[in-house]
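#help-structures
NK: newbie question, is this the right format to request a structure? protein is Propionate 3-nitronate monooxygenase
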Amino acid sequence: MMNNLTRLLDIALPIVQAPMFGVTTPAMVAAAANTGALGSLAIADLSAQKSIEQIRATRQLTAKPFAVNLFVHTIPPITATLREQYTQTKSHIEHLAAKNGLTVKLPELDAIQVTPYQDQIDAIISEQCRIVSFTFGIPDAESIQQLKANNTILIGTCTSVAEAIALEEQGIDIICVQGIEAGGHRGSFIGLPQIGGFSLLPQVYDTVKTPLIYAGGIYNKKSMQAALALGAQAVSIGSLLIASKESALLPFEKERLSTVKEEEVVLTRSFSGRFARGIHNTFIQALEGSDYILPYPYQNKLTGELRRIARAHQDSEFVNIWLGQSIQSFSSASTAEIINQLTK
Ligand SMILES: Cc1cc2nc3c(=O)[nH]c(=O)nc-3n(C[C@H](O)[C@H](O)[C@H](O)COP(=O)(O)O)c2cc1C
C-alpha cells in the first residue's frame, strides 16, 4: 500500500478523498485523514475568512495532514457585453424558475462577490497548510513560489497530456489525472479535452516523471487496482462518497442518486459556465446549448441563489447533483467504512 507518493504525503493508504465542493465537509475530510487516506477540504472560491473557518473546523477533528483544494481560475473582466448578457440571463432564469413554481430573485452583477484565488493562498499560508491541491488551471508563478517557500506540497489536476506537461513544467509536485468519467467539474485548462481515464492515465505516465493520482470512476477495489496498475500511485474517490454519512448532500439529493440511470449522467455548463458532470434535469434541459450561459464564475454566482431556493424546496430539477459515470449503490456508510472497504 505504501509508495513514494504515500510517503511524500505522509499517508498510510494510496487513497485520496476527492475534494468535492458542496459535498465535502470537515467531518468527511477528518474521517478520511484519520483512516489513513488523504482528506481534501474543498474551498472552491470561498472568501479567505470562510476558507480559514473551514480549515480550522477540520483541524478540530484531525491532527493528520489533509489537502486544501481551490479553484485556480482567472476571473474574466466585467465588460459592457458581459453586463448585458448577465441581465438577460438573470431575467431568463428567473422566468424559467417562476414557470416551474420557484420564486427567486437572483443577484445583480454588482452585488456578487468573486474571490481571487490569491486571497485564499494567503489564508492557506497563514494557516500553515502543508498540502494544496487545485483545479481549473495552474497558480501564477508568484503564488507557486510563495507556497513552495512555505514547504507546501502542490497537487495539480490535468485532463490531458498537454496539461500534465504544463503542470510538470511549473514544478507541481503531484499530478491528479482526471478522466472524462469523473463527477463534478472538469479540471481542464487547455482547450476542452474529453479523454477517458484508461486512455489518459497510461499516456500521462509515459510522458511525465511527476507522481500521479488518478480520479474518475473508481468505485471498488478492482477499479482501484486497475488505476494503480496503469501508473497511478493513489486513486481519488469522489462519487463513492457522495451519499456517505459525512456528505453535505440533503436527503432528497441522496434519494435522487438511488434512481439515477446511466443516460441521465451528463456534462453540462449550465450551472456554472464550466463543464461539470452530474444528473440531467429540467434546468439543464432548458439552458444547455442556449445563449443563457455566462462565463465562469459569473454563471456559478448567478445560479447560486436559484440552487439555494431549490434545495429549500427539495426540488431536484433545479439543483446541481454532481456525480461520475460509475453508477453504484451510493453507500450511506461512513467515509471510514467506505475507504476501508476498498482496501479489504
Ligand atoms: C460533487 C462533486 C464535487 C466536486 N468538486 C470538486 C472540487 O471542489 N474541486 C476539485 O478539484 N474537484 C472536484 N470534483 C471532482 C473530484 O475531485 C474528482 O475528480 C471526481 O469525483 C472523481 O471521479 P468520481 O466522481 O468518478 O470518483 C467534484 C466531484 C464531485 C462528484
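mod (FA): yep, format's fine, and the C-alpha cells are attached above. The mean pLDDT is 97.
NK: thank you!
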